[in-house]
Specification:
The complex is a heterodimer of chains A (245) and B (456). Chain A is an alpha/beta fold and 245 residues long. Helix content of chain A is 46%, strand content 11%. Chain A folds into two domains: 111 residues, no CATH class; 116 residues, Rossmann fold. Chain B has 22 helices and ten strands. In chain B, strands 1-10-7-4-2-3 form a six-stranded parallel beta sheet, with helices on both faces. Chain B has a four-stranded mixed beta sheet with strand order 8-5-6-9. The chains are: A alpha/beta (245), B alpha/beta (456). Chain B: Keywords: 4Fe-4S, Electron transport, Iron, Iron-sulfur, Metal-binding, Repeat, Transport.
C-alpha cells in the first residue's frame, strides 16, 4: 500500500504541527508514508471564489504529485472534497480519475481503510468536536442533522477510543462556523458572527478543547478565541490522536 | 447594495440577529422532529425529486393536459409569458367584472410580478390576507421570508404598526389581541371583496384541479366569498397525478414549519354555479432557467422555505439583505437567472455548507448550484480589481511549486515581522475581529526536509 501524504497549503505554511501529527500518527499505525515534494494547493480557494478556470494549473500539479499512490491522505476534509468533487474541470484521464478516487480525509482513511478506531491515544480533556461542513455533508464523514439517516460519526468513532477524553454534547451539532474560505473576508460580518456563535456553543457545553478534521474552520475560530481571550484551545484531531499514553 | 453590505448593517444590532437566528432555528428544529416521525423520509424526498425532474422533462405535455382538463371543468385558463402579461391579464379580468376590491392570499409569483403596485396604480385596492403578509404590506415592506413573511418583525413592532394602521391600543405586543384585531380588520375586507387572488401550490395535470395550502384559511375565505377567483401559478407547479399529492403534501408542511400538514389544503376543481375560476399560467423566465442544465433543478422548488430556516447566513442576515423576491439559498440560485448583474453577490452569500441541499424536500443541489453560479459571475460580471488580481495571481503561484515555496516563505516572514499596525490595518478584513495565526519558525516542508536529513 503506497500512501501519499497531502499537506494542504495553509497547513504547510501556518500549521506545520498538524502536518507533523498526521505523518507521525499514520506511521504509528504502521503505514509507510511518502511525502511528495512540490505540493502547492488543491485549488479550492480559487474554485469557491468562482475562479475555477484559474485553478487548473494547481489541480494538474496535484495530480502529477499523487498519481502514483494507492491512497492520498490529507488532514483537511474540504481540500479532499475539492479533489474528489471539483477536479471535474480537468480532462478525465486515468490519472485524474485515480487521484480523485484515492483521495481520503485522514479520519476516514484510518477508520475505513485501516479499519482502526483505537489509535492508542490519551487526552484527558473535555473536547468539543466541530464537524466541518465539507467533510460532513460533502464527504459524508458522519450523518447530518438535516437527514433522517442512522447516526454515525467517523471522527467520534476515533475520539471515543481516546483514553480520558470526554466528548461534550453541543446544542447545534453540525452548524457551519462561518469560515467558508474567501467568504470569511468578503462576508466578514456574518462570518465573524457565525464563528462567535459556534464558539459560544462550545463554551456553554464546558468544552476545553475544540477539535475537528478541517483546520481552516479551526483557524477561523482560533482567530476569534484569541482576539476575545476566551478560555478555549483549538487542536486538529490529528494532534489529539497523536498524543501518546 | 451587495448582500455583504446589507448583512453588515443587519449585524449592527446583535441582539436582533440573535433573536432572528433563534426564531428560525426553532422552526428548523420543529422540521427535524416532524421529519423524524415519518418513516422513509429520505425515500419521500427521492420520490418528490424524481417526480419533479420527470415533470420538468415533460413540461409541455403536462401543461397541455392540465389546461385541457381545467377547461373541461369550466375553469378559464390564461397564459402569460412574463410579469407584464400576467399583470395585464389580471387587470383585464378585474375590468370585465368592474372589480375594485381584491383580497389576495399568499403568492410569491404575484410578488415576483409586482402585481400589487401595478393594480394599486390602476386604482384597485389589493389587500394581502395572510397575517404576515398583511403586516409587511402595512409596513410597506417586501416579505423577508416566503413562508414567514414578517419573521423580521418582533411582536412589539407589530403592536406599534397596528396602532398606527388598525387603531389598536398599545398591548406590549400581545399576540392574541393583535391577531384578533387583524382578524376583525380582514373580515371586513373578505366580505367586501369583488375578486380573490390566490397562488397555487400544486396543479394536478390529470384532474385539471389545483391545491392551495394555507394555515389561516385565508385563501378559502377569499375564494369562497368573492364571485371571481384568480389563481396564479408558475409553469413548474404541475404534478402529474392527484395521487402524487400524498408525497408532496407530506413533505411541504413538515419542511416548512414542522406541521404534519397545513391547516388547510384546499382543492379547487371547478367553479360553483354563478362563479368563475381563472388560472394564469406564467413563464416569466422559467423556460430560460429550464434551458440551463446546471440550474434546471432549481425549478423543483415547492416554496417551503426550509433552506432559509436552516441557512446560517440567512438566519443572521435577514431576508431583506438578499434584495430579491425569494431570499435565502433557493433565491440565490433563482435570482441570478433573472438578473445576473443585480443579484451577482447572492451566490457568494454562502459558505457552501450544504445544509440547504440536505433539508430540501425536493432535493435541489442548492450549494452545488451556488458554486456553479460563482464560476459564471466572475466571467460575466465586472469584479473588484483587487479581488480579481489576487485570485488570478494565486492561481499562477499554485501552478508553480518553486514560486509557491518562495511566496509561502516570504508571506510567513512578512506575517512574523511586519508591524502589527500594518497587519491589522483596515485593508485586512480578516483581522478586524480575528487574530491571525501565530507564525512558526518553519513550515512543514522545512521540518520534513530536516527530518529526512536526520534520518539519513
Amino acid at each position: 500500500m503506497k500512501v501519499g501524504l497531502f499537506i494542504p497549503c495553509y497547513i504547510n505554511q501556518l500549521y506545520p504541527q498538524v502536518g507533523i501529527a498526521t505523518l507521525e500518527l499514520l506511521e504509528k499505525l504502521g503505514v509507510t508514508v511518502y511525502y511528495p515534494q512540490g505540493q502547492t494547493c488543491c485549488g479550492q480557494p480559487l474554485g469557491n471564489s468562482g475562479y475555477e478556470e484559474d485553478s487548473k494549473g494547481a489541480c494538474q500539479v496535484f495530480v502529477e504529485n499523487f498519481k502514483e499512490y494507492d491512497y492520498i491522505v490529507g488532514p483537511s476534509g474540504s481540500c479532499i472534497y475539492h479533489v474528489k468533487h471539483h477536479f471535474d474541470i480537468l480532462e478525465q484521464t486515468p490519472d485524474v480519475i485515480k487521484v480523485r478516487n484515492n483521495a481520503y480525509e485522514m479520519c476516514e482513511f484510518i477508520v475505513k481503510v485501516l479499519g482502526i478506531t483505537d489509535v492508542g491515544a490519551s487526552f484527558p480533556h473535555k473536547v468539543g468536536l466541530h464537524k466541518s461542513c465539507h467533510g460532513l455533508r460533502g464527504l459524508k464523514l458522519g450523518s447530518c442533522s438535516e437527514r433522517m439517516d442512522p447516526y454515525y460519526s467517523t471522527e467520534e468513532e476515533l475520539l471515543n477510543q481516546v483514553k480520558g477524553l470526554e466528548l461534550m454534547p453541543l446544542t447545534r451539532k453540525d452548524e457551519c462556523c462561518g469560515f467558508g474560505g474567501t467568504f470569511s473576508v468578503f462576508e466578514e460580518a456574518i462570518s465573524v458572527k457565525m464563528g462567535k456563535d459556534r464558539i459560544h456553543d462550545h463554551l456553554d457545553s464546558g468544552v476545553e478543547v475544540i477539535t475537528g478534521a478541517d483546520h481552516s474552520c479551526l483557524m477561523h475560530m482560533e482567530g476569534l478565541i484569541n482576539r476575545n481571550k476566551q478560555p478555549l484551545k483549538v487542536m486538529h484531531i490529528a494532534e489529539i490522536l497523536n498524543t501518546s499514553m | 447594495m451587495s448582500h455583504a453590505k446589507q448583512a453588515e448593517i443587519f449585524n449592527k444590532n446583535e441582539a436582533k440577529v440573535n433573536w432572528h437566528d433563534k426564531a428560525l432555528w426553532y422552526v428548523r428544529e420543529k422540521r427535524d422532529n416532524s421529519a423524524h416521525n415519518v418513516k422513509g423520509w429520505e425515500h419521500l424526498r427521492d420520490s418528490a425529486s424524481g417526480i419533479k425532474a420527470h415533470v420538468l422533462s415533460n413540461l409541455d405535455e403536462y401543461l397541455i393536459q392540465f389546461e385541457q382538463n381545467a377547461l373541461q371543468n369550466g375553469i378559464k385558463v390564461h397564459w402569460a409569458s412574463d410579469a407584464e402579461e400576467h399583470n395585464t391579464i389580471i387587470h383585464e379580468i378585474l375590468k370585465d367584472h368592474k372589480a375594485e376590491k381584491v383580497v389576495k392570499s399568499k403568492s410569491m409569483l404575484t410578488e415576483e410580478c409586482h402585481l400589487n403596485p401595478y393594480l394599486e396604480e390602476k386604482g384597485i385596492e389589493v389587500i394581502d390576507t395572510d397575517l404576515g403578509e398583511r403586516i409587511v404590506q402595512l409596513a410597506k415592506e417586501p416579505p423577508s421570508h416566503i413562508v414567514l413573511p414578517a419573521i423580521h418583525k418582533t411582536k412589539e413592532e407589530v403592536d406599534v404598526l397596528f396602532q398606527e394602521h388598525l387603531g389598536t391600543k398599545a398591548s406590549q405586543g400581545d399576540p392574541e389581541y393583535l391577531t384578533n384585531a387583524a382578524r376583525k380588520h380582514l373580515r371586513g375586507k373578505f366580505l367586501n371583496a369583488d375578486v380573490a387572488i390566490t397562488g397555487v401550490n400544486f396543479a394536478v395535470a390529470d384532474t385539471g384541479g389545483f391545491v392551495v395550502c394555507t394555515n389561516e384559511g385565508n385563501a378559502d375565505m377569499g375564494a369562497h366569498l368573492a364571485k371571481v377567483h384568480i389563481a396564479c401559478m408558475g409553469i413548474e407547479k404541475i404534478i402529474p397525478k392527484e395521487g402524487h399529492l400524498g408525497i408532496f403534501l407530506r413533505l411541504l408542511a413538515r419542511s416548512a414549519t414542522g406541521q404534519p400538514i397545513t391547516t388547510y389544503s384546499s382543492h379547487f376543481n371547478k367553479p360553483t354555479e354563478g362563479k368563475e375560476i381563472h388560472i394564469v399560467i406564467v413563464d416569466n423566465g422559467r423556460t430560460e432557467q429550464l434551458s440551463r442544465e446546471d440550474f434546471r433543478a432549481s425549478l423543483h422548488c415547492i416554496r417551503c422555505g426550509a433552506c432559509m430556516n436552516t441557512c446560517p447566513i440567512y438566519r443572521r442576515s435577514g431576508g431583506h439583505s438578499y434584495d430579491a423576491t425569494i431570499p435565502g439559498p433557493i433565491g440565490s440560485i433563482l435570482s441570478p437567472g433573472k438578473d445576473l448583474k443585480k443579484h451577482s453577490s447572492l451566490p457568494f452569500a454562502s459558505t457552501l455548507c450544504g445544509s440547504c441541499s440536505n433539508v430540501c424536500p425536493v432535493k435541489i443541489n442548492i450549494h452545488e448550484q451556488l458554486y456553479k453560479w460563482r464560476q459564471i459571475i466572475v466571467k460575466e460580471q465586472p469584479q473588484p480589481v483587487v479581488k480579481k488580481s489576487i485570485l488570478k495571481m494565486t492561481g499562477t503561484v499554485f501552478s508553480k511549486p518553486g514560486l509557491y515555496s518562495f511566496i509561502g516563505k516570504s508571506a510567513r516572514f512578512a506575517l512574523k515581522y511586519a508591524p502589527k499596525s500594518l497587519i491589522y490595518s483596515k485593508l485586512n478584513a480578516w483581522g478586524k475581529a480575528r487574530d491571525l495565526p501565530e507564525v512558526k519558525n518553519e513550515n512543514f516542508d522545512d521540518w520534513y526536509k530536516k527530518r529526512s536529513k536526520n534520518n539519513g
